[in-house]
Amino acid sequence: MPKQNRRIRIKWHIIVFLAPAVLVYTAVMVYPLFNTMRLSLFTETDQQRVFVGLQNFRTLFGDDVWSDQFWNALGNNLQFFLIHMLVQNPIGIALAAILSHPKLRFASFYRSAIFIPTILSFVIVGFAWKLILSPIWGIAPGMLDAVGLKSLYAPWLGKEAYALTTLSLVSVWQFVGIPMMLIYAALLSIPDEILEAAEVEGITGQSAFWKIKLPLILPSIGIISILTFVANFNAFDLIYAAQGALAGPDFSTDILGTFMYRSFFGFQLQLGDPHMGSAIASAMFAIILVGVSIYLFGIQSRMRRYQF
Amino acid sequence: MDKKTCKTGTRLTASFTAMTFGAVFAFGTTAAAADDVTLTIESWRNDDLAIWQDTIIPAFEAKHPGIKLKFTPSSPAEYNAVLNSKLSAGSAGDIITCRPFDASLALYEAGHLSDVTGLEGMKNFSPVAKSGWSTDDAAIQFCVPMASVIHGFIYNKDAFSELGIEEPQTEAEFFAALDKIKDDGTYIPMAMGTNDQWEAATMGYNNIGPNYWKGEEGRLALLAGKQKLTDEAWVAPFRQLAKWGQYLGDGYEAQTYPDSQNIFTLGRAAIYPAGSWEISGFNTQADFKMGAFFPPVANAGDTCYISDHTDIGIGMNAKTAHPEAATVFLNWVGTTEFASLFANALPGFFPLSSGTVELEDPLAQEFISWRGECESSIRSTYQVLSRGTPNLENDTWNASVAVIKGEESPEDAGKRLQEGLASWYAPQQ
Fold first, then answer.
1. What is the domain range of residue A144?
2. CB–CB contact A271 B80 (8 Å)
3. Strand B37-43 relative to strand B67-73: parallel, antiparallel, unpaired?
4. Per the CB < 8 Å rule, is A137 touching B259?
5. Which residues, in sequence order, are CB contacts of B174 under 8 Å at separation 6+?
6. Is position B137 within any domain?
7. CB 3.0-4.6 Å disulfide test: which of A167, B51, B125, B168 passes with B345?
């Protein structure tokens, strides 16, 4: 049976090379993911784990106490994402375009300086900005005072109207290096012949960017958008480091990550409920899955790609 | 009444101390031969690590050879959650520091805490002291009471004498003093922020509130459903809080709890709405003289009420591998020896034991002297009322902050809290 033999040989070949990645990924990602979803179908009564079907989701979306918090967190999360899309990515693209300009001096210095915050820990960024913006010890009020703009200062992190925007911008500051680097790499990969050909046709400077470079880096912008989406809807660390798990003031900075943490592990007087926490985690997974699917099937498959 | 129980208490303490030690010495000599037993203590008091290691543990170990103690605290905000997961996983320590009321009651009902009703050390405590760690019918105790904290205001004595202000006795004097400090401008009148939320309720609402709802009288009436949170007695504290906002420093909305502590101990603020647990920290940080006054009453001569809250108890993990050693330790916690060690090492945590304990710290003496002048009560939201969802204590944090910031009127805050409570608490329906 030569046919079967050959099939087995091919299997071994694939298995050996895939095994390490598959095993590690299954152990640390796939299994916990499915176990979380399984956990969300249970609840605990009298120290016993009981199967309750979709009851946790019914509570999450039907019970006022839970659903108010969930929609609040989801709304805040959307705002968090929109600010990243409107501020972080355009600035990242602009920085990359400027950096790739052949006549710019000290380009590698700027590149490193802008990228460095990305490698800092969330905790450091959270505490540093908390201190900078603090009305008591911070340098923000003093700096604004020095240029005569003290009246513009407000305790931003303590005001419900500003806190979420402030933290979004802190996060933008930290991560603007990522889209910059990805776009920068994409811009460098555009062959000189194309640009030279365009120059011959009389397209130079700004219009070269809009007409030649931008269409060529659109796939990278798509990737960046989806990375931002996934990262923002999984975000937790910065809010937790700056505002704590209560995501104050009055839950105005509460996003799905902090809401999940509070429900799962408990905080101060609230006792942890792993089952409700899992239900929220599953909802987060569903939201991200839908977002990524829309991108993959709706946008990426229609995008035109150029081969050089 | 008080004196009498106190006296019998002392006598009891003395005889039981003697008995305990007799028993322990006998036990100790036999145990010393065997391997040492190490008891791990779970606690949220990470501020007290040095005191346990330098004072309390050596004192215990010297008397009880064969038993070693290990104090392993975690951060206060995360303690309940961390402890719960450790207990369910079976990795928690032998000795559990108990939060008062429902948090520990839930642990007992889940079979995580042992019944300590019969412990010899328990006989040194009054029913009020034990109330924080008893079942609802008071039949079973599951933690040995350790300490209570008293609320009031700590002030910068130097600032007061500089501005010629006396300790305010009435509300009118209190606000006159705040106005004077504010007009002078050298000091921030009051150091408190709303960023962390709990201070507004704990150091605000539950600090000044007992004067309005007449301490235990109002608290028990609320529990029984005879008073509502929309009643004047429960809304009036919010009305006072609404006036606080203008006296808190610039940007108090983003001021955290450590910020407030630092502002006060750096001498930048004149008054600090406090819990007595601040005393030991403030003593080491502040280089000015400090005094304290209890929450001012409405009219001169009114009875004052203070929040003297049962705060820390200590119990035994039901699954401990060393129940005998843990019992020995818990009995020791019930003794006057421990009470005086603990109270003097940690001024501001007042012993609940009926035995007499001499306090050396002047600020702590001032706080504890109010027990004689005023009527004591515990925080209104802790017993039973935070059992349901929405949690009344958490809602009170939120409401107190909103009132101080002027985002919610005192009446609306009272109405919202009452609606939340009535949604699950039968006597209020």
1. 76-302
2. yes
3. parallel
4. yes
5. B168, B296
6. yes
7. B51
What DSSP character marks residue B204? I
Task: Report yes or no: B163 and B133 within 8 Å, Cβ to Cβ.
Answer: no
Nearest in space to A277 (alpha carbons), one of A230, A236, A227, A228: A236
If asked whether residues B19 and B79 sit together in one domain, one would say yes
Share of chain B above pLDDT 70, in %: 92
Q: Is the per-residue pLDDT at B260 higher than 50?
A: yes
CB A122 within 8 Å of CB A238: yes
How far are the Cα atoms of B183, B264, B280, B320 from residue B161, in angstroms, in the given order? 16, 16, 23, 55
Interface with A, mutate which of B195, B259, B416 (most A CBs under 10 A): B195
pLDDT digits (tens, 9 = 90+) for A39-80: 999 998 777 888 998 999 999 999 888 899 999 999 999 999
Select from A228, A208, A203, A215 the least CA-distant residue to A291.
A228
Distance of residue A2 Cα from the nearest chain B Cα, in angstroms? 54
Is A136–B259 a contact, with Cβ atoms under 8 angstroms apart?
A: yes
- CATH of residue B107: 3.40.190.10
Q: Do A250 and B111 touch (CB under 8 A)?
A: no
Among A158, A246, A268, whose Cβ lies nearest the Cβ of B254? Answer: A158
Is the N-terminal amide bond of B390 cis, ω within 30° of 0? Answer: yes
When scoring A68, A137, A167, A268 by the number of chain B Cβ atoms within 10 A, the one with the most, hence best to mutate, is A268
* Cis before A2 (ω within 30): no
B188 has which bridge partners?
A: B269
From the list A136, A150, A139, the residue with the least C-alpha distance to B195 is: A136
Lowest mean pLDDT among B24-38, B166-180, B211-225, B374-388: B24-38
Mark whether B14 and B84 lie in a shared domain.
yes
Of A65, A245, A266, the CB nearest to B84: A266
A261 touches chain B (CB under 8 A): no
The CATH number of the domain where A248 resides is what? 1.10.3720.10
Q: Which residue in this structure is represented by tokens 């004077």?
A: B180
Name the residue of chain A whose CA is nearest to B103's CA. A269
Q: Which of A250, A269, A271 sits opposite B401 (nearest CB)?
A: A250
Domain count, chain B: 2
Residue found by looking up tokens 């987060």 in the block:
A284
Measured distance CA(B408)–CA(B415) in Å, rounded: 11
Tokens at residue B250, please? 């610039």
Q: What is the DSSP letter of B154?
A: E
- Within an 8 Å CB–CB cutoff, is residue B321 touching chain A? no
Q: Collect all residues of chain A within an 8 Å Cβ-Cβ radius of residue B389.
A: 65
**CA B330 to CA B314: how far, in whole Å?**
7
B368 contacts B352 by C-beta, under 8 angstroms? no
Q: What does the CA dihedral A125, A127, A129, A130 come to, rounded to 10 degrees? A: 150
135-154 in A: which are within 8 Å (CB) of B?
135-137, 141, 154
Count residue pairs from A and B with Cβ separation < 8 A: 88
Q: How many CB atoms lie within 10 A of CB B49?
A: 13
Q: Does B421 touch chain A (CB under 8 A)?
A: no
Q: Which of B238, B259, B237, B239 is nearest to B248 (CA)?
A: B259
- Are B363 and B291 a contacting pair, CB within 8 Å? yes
From CA B300, how far away is CA B167, in angstroms rounded? 13
* Cross-chain residue pair B401–A47, CB shorter than 8 Å: no
Name the DSSP letter for residue B292: E
Q: Return the structure tokens found at B16.
A: 């039981």
In a domain, B389, yes or no: yes
